[in-house]
Amino acid sequence: MGNKPRYRQIADVFREKINAGELKPGDALPTESSLQEAFSVSRVTVRQALKLLADEQIIESIQGSGSYVKEERVNYDIYQLTGFYEKLADRNVDTHSDVKIFEVVKADTRLAATLAIGEDDKVWHVKRVRFIKQKPVNLEETWMPLAMFPDLTWEVMEKSKYHYVEQIKKLVIDRSEQELVPVMPSEEAIAALALDPAKRSWKKSPAVS
Fold this sequence. Notes:
Layout: H1 6-19, H2 32-39, H3 43-55, E1 59-62, E2 66-69, H4 84-89, E3 95-106, H5 109-115, E4 122-132, E5 135-145, H6 154-158, H7 161-168, E6 176-183, H8 187-193, E7 201-208
Domain HTH gntR-type: 4-72
GO molecular function, one term: DNA binding
Organism: Enterobacter cloacae
């Protein structure tokens, strides 16, 4: 390794382990004290190595917890009206949806007010898990008026409802109201998304028209 600084040598060791698959996304790195002992260096040198890896987006350090191999993430702007499927397809990212519920129900008072329909009018109720690169990232629940979308199908909801609404039905989505709140995950969400039951997750409640 020649005259390469010691902290860079340590970073190289972990970079090689990660590239070789010995350390996988989400795996914890040894503690700083363990690294000091293993490489016979100071805490400052260890922290320089970890900072270098973090700056390269290879690991992430969580205060009070440790350093972990960074999981590959795809950022998706939840505030854009562009659909989940279209947004990520433009970036050649593999996505799909697993439809869990596809049924027709009667609208209750709150749902009727949200959708501007009559109470007891029939609506599609769809629940699906959205996947990015085979990883579940979102549990989505949708209600759509049956009278407006009588030909909605299971297959449509496996892909993009935005494409169906705008390209097939030729309707324009011109408004989106969204509420984003931190909540403790439900048992259903924990099972579907492999969430930590002790950590809050984000719940988004949109109404689009």
